[in-house]
Amino acid sequence: MPDTTLDPTLDPARRSWVPGAATPGADFPLQNLPFGVFRRARTHEAPRVGVAIGDAILDVTACAALGVLDDDGDALDAARACDAPALNPLMARGPAARRALRRALSVLLGDELPAGRQALVAQALVPQAEAELFLPAQVGDYTDFYASVHHATNVGSMFRPDQPLLPNYKWVPIGYHGRASSVVVSGTPVLRPSGQRKGPDEPAPTVGPSRSLDYELELGCFVGQGNPLGTPIPLAEAEAHGFGVVLLNDWSARDLQAWEYQPLGPFLAKSFATTVSPWVVTLEALAPFRAPLAPRAPGDPAPLPYLDTPDDRARGGLALTLQVTLRTAAMRAAGLPPFVVSTGSALDLYWSFAQMVAHHASNGCNLRPGDLLGSGTVSGPVPESRGCLLERTWRGAKPLALPGGEVRRFLEDGDEVVFTAWAERPGAVRIGLGRCAGVVVPRDAAG
Amino acid sequence: MPDTTLDPTLDPARRSWVPGAATPGADFPLQNLPFGVFRRARTHEAPRVGVAIGDAILDVTACAALGVLDDDGDALDAARACDAPALNPLMARGPAARRALRRALSVLLGDELPAGRQALVAQALVPQAEAELFLPAQVGDYTDFYASVHHATNVGSMFRPDQPLLPNYKWVPIGYHGRASSVVVSGTPVLRPSGQRKGPDEPAPTVGPSRSLDYELELGCFVGQGNPLGTPIPLAEAEAHGFGVVLLNDWSARDLQAWEYQPLGPFLAKSFATTVSPWVVTLEALAPFRAPLAPRAPGDPAPLPYLDTPDDRARGGLALTLQVTLRTAAMRAAGLPPFVVSTGSALDLYWSFAQMVAHHASNGCNLRPGDLLGSGTVSGPVPESRGCLLERTWRGAKPLALPGGEVRRFLEDGDEVVFTAWAERPGAVRIGLGRCAGVVVPRDAAG
Known about the structure:
The structure is a homodimer. By secondary structure, chain A is α+β, with helices and mostly antiparallel strands. The first copy, chain A, is built from 13 helices and 26 strands. Chain A has helices spanning 60-66, 73-80, 88-92, 94-109, 115-122, 149-159, 235-238, 254-260, 283-286, 310-315, 329-333, 353-360, 389-392, and strands at residues 35-40, 48-53, 56-59, 125-127, 131-134, 142-145, 175-178, 183-185, 190-191, 194-197, 206-209, 213-214, 217-223, 242-249, 252-253, 274-276, 281-282, 290-291, 317-318, 321-327, 339-345, 372-374, 400-401, 407-408, 416-423, 431-441. In chain A, the strands form 7 sheets. In chain A, strands 6, 7, 8, 13, 14, 16, 17 and 22 form an 8-stranded mixed sheet that branches. In chain A, strands 4-3-2-1-5 form a 5-stranded antiparallel sheet. In chain A, strand 1 (35-40) and strand 2 form a beta hairpin. Chains A and B meet through strand 7, strand 10 and helix 8 of A and strand 7, strand 10 and helix 8 of B.
C-alpha cells in the first residue's frame, strides 16, 4: 500500500494538462488514473488498455510506441501487457508492475511535463466521447458477497421476520458464486428476464417476464495476481491480490429469486445480466480514502483470527459515497433529470474486501487475475441509503414517488438505472468511479 | 442426433485395429471415440486434442499433418480446431463439425482400413500409459444442478425432516453456480480444506481442517456451441448445444457447508476442488443408450411446457451405470482391492441434461463452449445406489465397514475415491467413461 504522503501520484497540488482533468468534481483527475479497455468507436481497431484522464483516454500501447516510456524499464514492461483486449495480463503482473506504470503515466500527464513533450503524449489521447468501452477484464469467476449487514437484515426481516439475520452472518463473510458469462459493461441494455414465478397463494408456478425486476448497488473488486490452488491468502497479503474497484449492478428478478433460491441460492434470478462500470479505480488511487468500516454493534463477535489484522481494522474500508439514480422513459420524454433514489457509503459494509479475499481463499480456492468479487448490495442504516428497490420500497409497500407523477415498486421497461460513486476528503483530490448504467428493455424489443 | 441404425460409427459389427480397443469390457472401443487433451508425459510438448481408442490416444493434429484426413474437408477443418490445449475451439464449432471428425476418425481406426494405411495412422498413436492428460476444456462457468430427486429427498430429510423436498423441486431444475477455477482433471490430489465449522451445541465456530469431507458422484456435461446473451435455448434445440459427458466429483466439506450455506448456498464447502474425468464421451457415442428417465411419481406435476417435448420424454436420459469405489491407504498397503461403495444409474435423475440446458438459458443466460453442467449427486432409490457418503452412511449413523476392518463415516486422509461409468445393452457395443479419481491429502502434506 503506497504511503499517501509520499506517493507523488497522489500529491493534491499536482494537475494534469489534459482538458477536463482539473475541473472541480471531475471523476478522473491526475490522481485517479483508472484502467479500462477501449477503442475508437465505429472502427475495427483492436480493443486495448487505456487510462481515463479528464475527458480523454490515454492509450498505453500508443505511449509505448511513441517512446515516451523508454526511460522507465519497469513501466515499459507493464505497458507491454496493455496491448490486450482485457486487463488480465496487466492484472497478472501484480501490484509492483501496476504501480510502476501508474507512476510513469502520472509524470506524462502532469502539467510539469514540458510543452513539447505534452504535444507528443497528446498523440496518444483519444476523447472519451469518441471511444467505445469494453468489459475491463475477462472474468474467470464472479463471486458475489453479502457484506452489508443492513441489507442482510432488511431482506431477512422481509422473508424471515423471526430471524432476520442468520447465526452465521457475523462470523462468515457470506458469499456465493455468480455467473461470469453474463457480466457486461455499463451501457449494455438489460433484457427483462422470463422465468418461473409463483405467488404464495398460487397453486402452481407460471412462466413469463419478471414482475419484480430490481437493481442491486454494489462495489466490485477485480483480482490482480492470483494464488495457486491449495494455497490460502493470509489477510495481511490480501490487498496485494487486489487490482481495483468498479461499480456493479447485480440485476435481480425478485419473483424468480423467491421461487427458485431454496436450498442452493440465487440462480436464474441473477444470471441474465450483471453490469460493471468500465474504469477500474486502483487501490493506489484509493489510498487517501481508506478508513475503518463502521464499528460492529456492541455484542457482535470479533472477526476470527484469519479475518482480523490491525491494519484491516484501521483502514479496511473505502470511504466511497455511492449513489443510485433512476430515470424512466416518461421522465426522459418530459426532459426531467434523473431522480436520486439512494445515497450510501461503502464504509457501512460489515466486511472489507481484504476479508472477503482471505475468506475466499481460506479453503485453498484459487483466485485468478480478472476474477470479480461483488460486495453485495451496499445499504446503510437509513431508508435513503438502501441499495435496491426491494429494500427501498420495502417490497413494494412504500412505492417511490417520482418527479412527473409516476411511482415505482420495481423497475419498468424503459427505466434507466445509473450508479455513481466518489471519494473526497480535505487534503486529497476528489476522484470518481465513473458510471454504471443500464436501461431495462422488454423481451419482445430484443433483436 | 444421429440415427443409431444408420450411423456407421455405431455399427456394432465394426472393430478397431488398435490394441485394446476390441477387448471385451474396454471403455474405449471404436464406437466410443471420446475427446480429451494430452501430451507425452515428461515432455514439454504443447497439450493438444486426442481421441481415446483402446489403450492408445489418436493425436488428431498429427493425423491432419500426416495427410490422412485430406479427402474429407469437413473433418480436416474440424481437426484444425484440435491443435489447441483445450477442447473449446472444437466445441465452439458445433455438432456438425464434431460428427464429421468423428466419422473420419472412425474410418481411420476401423479394421477395414488397408494395412498400409493403418501403419501410417499408427504414427499418430500415443500409448495412454505414456500420456499426461489435462482438463479437457477451459471452463468458463461451472453450474451444478441438483437433478436427483432421491439425493434431494435424502439430504432434505436429514436437515428438514418435516419438509424433505422443497415445494419448487418438481417444477424447477434446481441449480447453482459452482467455482470454475478449481475444476481439476482426474488424478489431481485433493487437499483437505480448512474452514469455519460449528456444531449445533458449540457456542462459536472454530477454524480447522474439515472433519466431514465427502465426495459427490455426478455426471458432467460440457457445453458445445453457445447461445448469445438474451437468447433462450428451446428444449428441442438443447442437445445441439451439448458436446459430451464426463464423470464429475463435486468434493464437499459437509461441516463447512452446514455452517455457511444459508441463505445463499454452498461456497467454500465446494470450491476447493471439483474433479472431472479426462475423456469427454460425445452425445453421438451415447446415442444407443438414450432412454426415458425413471417415471415421475404419481401425482407429480408434468414439466412446464418449456421443459417438455415428446423427444425428451422418450429419450432424455442416459442409460449409464455409475459406480463409486473407495480404497484407503491401509487397504493399498495390505494389497486389498478397491471397495465398491455404490452403484447407480443416470436414469434415476429427475431432470435430463436437455432440460437443464433449456432451463439455464430460459432467462437469456448465455452458455459458452466449455461451460460445465454437473447433474448433482446421482442417487437411486436404494441405499446401495446413494452417490455420496452423507447419504450412504446417513450422516455417519451407518458407517461403512471396509475390507480390512476399517470403517468410514466420511473421507480420511489417504483415501482414494474412483468413479467409473459404462453403458451396455444388447445390440450395441459397451462403452465406458474412463475414470474420475482423486486421493485426499492432508493440508500439511501439501507442498
